[in-house]
Amino acid sequence: MEQIYLDHAATTPISKEVLETMNEASLNAFGNPSSIHSFGRNARKLLDDARAVIANAIGAKEKEIIFTSGGTESDNLALIGTALKNKARGKHIITTTAEHHAILHAAQFLETEGFDVTYLPVSETGTVSPDDLKAALRDDTILVSIMFANNETGVIQPITELSNILEDHGAYFHVDAVQAFGTFEINVKELGIDLLSVSGHKISGPKGIGFLYAGENVAFAPLSYGGEQERKHRAGTENTPGIAGLAKAVELAAAHRAENRAKYRSCRDTFIKRLTEEEIEYSVNGNLDELIPSTVNISFPGTNVEQLLVNFDLSGIAAASGSACTAGSHEPSHVLVAMFGTEDERTKNSVRFSFGSLNTEEQAAEAAGRIAKIVRRLAKRR
């Protein structure tokens, strides 16, 4: 039985080109980038080149790119670092109820430090209302953090509209782009984004590496102390092979963006079409036209998500109930609760399917066929 991986939103397989780039960096640029001798300078050049590639990909300046260990650290640095540095200007922060836990838990920590956090609601389709943001803004608002695309549902937020509201306000705008980066062209200057979080392993790059774009106008405090790496923003010897791999992944994502979008959408559409042909009951969580092309979150009435995932796995299909960071949790998805409320059955019978480099249309159709059989059998038992 063919194993079918439909969990690219959790992590993506590293590409061969990225792995080769990392191996070469490990062998030939092993020096400490902070050392002044030739071995250190060789490693430093690799970092400088990688920073230039990434900055160019998002329309930023090289000095505005800070290498981190991934999306969570980037989110924490953006939220906590910015809040602590700017608390003299105000202690009000705005985010949403459907953010990744890297944001929500950081916001909860800041509340214990005396900050006031407003959590904007989302609609049944998972989107934030620009009017709600406008109404929530205060003179003491220092930071607004809203993700580009949701990691559980794939729902895209109206980033341009939200940014326009903040244009004449002093609050910084942070965007978690972990799920959207690579699939969408993102120019931080054109979009009015002050801080942007990205993770390598979501774009066929290595795990344990990512970056935070922080505009030169943004003042934020470091969260780690030691050396003066990353312009004193993030202490610790840089992960040179990881950074080289990240830059290669960014380069490849930009080069193949259009074809990847078309491929992911085609796989997703084929998958949904087959489910419809199988005549099982299901519904998409969110508006299909407002999702990133790689992800769809589907409710199967009359079923239970734990049973579904176990049976999917036994039939060779890898999928997820939500964020990989909360795998094993028996609590309903906070994202779906934010969309539908605590009592809605969709919070207990929904599965995320996310397509990527490992998939073909034939696989998508085959997976949907297997899933339909499982759903039909489980729904009969209830």
TrEMBL record:
EC code? 2.8.1.7
Name this polypeptide is given = cysteine desulfurase
Q: Which cofactor does it need?
A: pyridoxal 5'-phosphate
Which sequence ranges are marked TM in the entry? none
Reactions catalysed:
(sulfur carrier)-H + L-cysteine = (sulfur carrier)-SH + L-alanine
The record's similarity note reads: Belongs to the class-V pyridoxal-phosphate-dependent aminotransferase family. NifS/IscS subfamily.
What InterPro entries would the database entry show? Aminotrans_V_dom, Aminotrans_V_PyrdxlP_BS, Cysteine_dSase, PyrdxlP-dep_Trfase, PyrdxlP-dep_Trfase_major, PyrdxlP-dep_Trfase_small
Aminotransferase class V domain residues are 4-363
Does this UniProt record's set of keywords contain Iron-sulfur?
Answer: yes
Q: Which Pfam families does the UniProt entry name for this protein?
A: Aminotran_5 (PF00266)
Keywords on record: Iron, Iron-sulfur, Metal-binding, Pyridoxal phosphate, Transferase
